[in-house]
Protein: Iron transporter
Organism: Microvirga vignae
Amino acid sequence: MFIQTEATPNPATLKFLPGRVVMPEGTFEAKTPEQGEFSPLAQRLFAVPGVTGVFFGYDFITVTKADGEWQHLKPAILGAIMEHFMTGAPLFSNGYGAVEEDGEEFFDPADASTVETIKELLETRIRPAVAGDGGDITFRGFKDGVVYLVMKGACSGCPSSTATLRHGIQNLLRHFLPDVREVQAV
């Protein structure tokens, strides 16, 4: 098994590509070992000293570190990923799977068509690009011209995430939807 690695815009996060589907649907993020308790792979990754976050996408895994150098952490992380896939262990135990965000979407029913367009643009133009960088962005709400988004994986805590929101996503949404004034992370 060959696992590729890619740098992300977040220097504290590295993207691992095991050459197979990791999560067929949805995404999963654990920022603590307790949040990863239902995933044997997340448990293996959190057992590596210095690992502070794990994110599973369709065909990738991103790992976030607190400190230490990637050159020292990477071999142990690669070993944990390889061991997981070679043993055939499930990604989740106890029927656990992808979980929706905490909190529900919020928007005025009068803005339903705007929200539908926002979600379509997120799905077709933004999320694929963000997944390429090892993260994900999901819609949370729309109120008074402000779009609220949740950033996960490599995007969470990334130094360039503010620029991504302001210059990339906000400009794209404003181009298609004049009602959008601003984009904020929640």
